[in-house]
Structure formats: C-alpha cells, structure tokens
Protein: Aspartokinase
Amino acid sequence: MARIVMKFGGTSVADVERIKNVALRVKKAVDAGDQVAVTVSAMAGETNRLVALCDSVSELYDAREYDTVVSTGEQVTSGLLAMALQDLGVDARSWQGWQIPIHTDDAHGKARILGIDTDVVSQRLDQGQVVVCAGFQGLGSDNRVTTLGRGGSDTSAVALAAALGAERCDIYTDVDGIYTTDPRIVPHARKLSKITYEEMLEQASMGTKVLQTRSVEIAMKYHVRVQVLSSFSDTPGTLVCDEDEIVEKEVVSGIAYSRDEAKITLLSVADRPGVAAGVFGALADANINVDMIVQNVSADGTTADITFTLPRTDLPRALKVLEKGQEDIGYARLEADKNVVKISVIGVGMRSHAGVAQTMFRALSEKGINILTISTSEIKVSVLIAEEYMELAVRALHSAYGLDAQ
Ligand code: ASP
Ligand code: MG
Structure:
C-alpha cells in the first residue's frame, strides 16, 4: 500500500466524459490498495475564460478579486470528480485550498505556498477516503483565496505530495512524458524514462510547458518523485527524480528552445566601473529579467559594447527604459533584434564530460548557422541564433548528440 498524489491537468478533465474516465483511473489505484490524494486543474480553456472575464470588466482589476474569480475553475472540477467517484462507489470528498488549508503568501495572482496543514486530509486518507483537492489555489495570510500563477496546479500537487510524504506524484497531462526534444520538430525524438530534477528545471525555465517551474523546484527540494504521463493511454511516462536513481546517465538528455527571446546591444558604452550596474539596475527596477550577457571592450580600451537577451515580450518596455536613461548610462547607440531564439543542450553528464560545447559549435557551423551569443551553466550550454534557423539547429543538435531514436 502506498500513498500517492495523482494530478490531472485541464485536458484530462476537459468534459464530463473525461472526468468520469479520471474517476475510473483513481478507482483503479484505490482498488490496488493505495491511499490517493487527487489534485485537479480547471476544465481546459476555463481559466482563460475566467481571466478574459476579469479583463473585460476592468483594465486595472484588483488582484484579490482576480483570484476570487479565476480560482473557481478548480472548485468546479474538484466537486465534479468527487461526485463521479462517489457514483463508482468510491468514498471521496472535495477540498478547496482554504479548507485544507494550503497557506500561501499574499502575492495574489502569483502566490507562493508557505505550508500545508495535512492533519485532516491525512486522517481522511488513513480512513480510505479519496481526497480531491482543487489545484492552483491557496489561502493568503490576509485570509483570502490566492492563486499560484498559471500552470500552478502542478505546484499544488507536488507541494501536497511533499507535505503528505507521498511515495510519488503522478502528473497526468496531454503529453505522455518528457522527450529529448519537441517531437513536432524532430519526429524521432525519444521519450526519456527518467530525467533528473536539475535537467527538468532547465527544461521548464526554457519554456517547456509540461511542468510549472516552481513545482520542479519543490520536487527537487523535498525529493518528491514526479511521474509525467498521459491520462489517455497506459504507456509508462517519464520519472523526474534524483540523479542517484538514474543508472545510465546521458551526457546530454535534451535539446530545448525558446522563441520568447530578444537581444539588445548598447554600443560605445564608457568602460568604467558602475556602468553595467547602471544598465541592469534600471532594467531590474522595471522588473525585466535579463538572461545572457556579453561585454566586449573596444581595441583602445576606452569603450565597451554590452549585449544581452531578455524575454521578447519585455522588449518594448526595456527600450523605453534604456532610451530614457541614455544620458545617465552613457552609450552612443542601441540596437535591438527580436528575430532570435535560444537553443540549449541540457544534461547532467556535462559535469564530467569534456567537449560538449565543442560538439554543439561544430554541428551548428556545419549547417552554416551563426552563433550570436553563448552562455553556459554546469549542466547547460545555450546559444542565441537567428530565428529562421531554429528547426534546422534543433535537428542538427539532436543528431549530433546521438539522441535520435534508432
Ligand atoms: N487552471 C490553471 C491554469 O490554467 C492552473 C493549472 O491548470 O495548472 O493556469
Ligand atoms: Mg499545466
């Protein structure tokens, strides 16, 4: 007998028929003797509809009222699933975030979980009752409902699994696992049977939307084994776990890409202390996250060019901030480019293998693809390239690292 958390995303509960299917899946686990806590998302499209309602009432809506509205999607599915389970003769009860409660901070719309009181739900689990929790929502210290940011029910599920000491958190979604790269670009991409938390975190932060980034952080911190799998098939999914659990580690486990990139270059910036602090301080004040940064000093050593990347969606705001600050920062000219993408090769094996970056650079050069910017971390090498070469680059790298399925 094991205690598990099963999480079902929006497509898995998109209509009543699918909710009944989910109930059957949960019943199977219960019949196998498991203690089951379920976390549900809103029905597919429902949260978007609720967000649009808020937008249509007020341009500057109060974030507390936004949470009041958008948290309702999960309330509906939790009740419907509890009913469907009861219909199958399974003892089940729905729980809203405030009832458990799942305590969060007061950052409405993007709240962080602070702690979960598991006493009552834990008791119910011990009694054999299925606990159906509404994902995405919590209780702020202002005693009001909060939501955890888009995609937040992954985080609800993993945090619940951590608090309940669950053996595993199964995330049922519309893909059947984590692949070596996007199968829409590389049809012979392989499904990974296991991936480390670190690698998954890099994938999530690159915009791979399968798991909310925060949920992977929590899983890593509390060593929650997370399985990503499809609710529409019975094929095994991908286990996100500690490195020790993976016997055959790949040097590179995946190629990720992000289209949400733009590049700014400030030309002829004075080469003196404090200039970079000025540039990036102004951007940080505007809440703009900068990613890759490169600085080149001119031949005579008096000026420098600073190039950096940022989310494409933030480009207009960043340009405004930098143009306004031109005199204070002290640069001659500014160039911006939004036809760029970031490609990353990710793998924990890089820590102990030389030549990973070299393989990347060679593969790209063989296709005549120019690299604009490079950055590295312990388990990732990223390059910025022109957007038109994105698919070609992903395919070339996928083969270069031997990731293509046989
Ligand atoms: N329903 C919420 C959203 O669409 C939370 C989730 O599904 O994870 O963002
Ligand atoms: Mg999701």
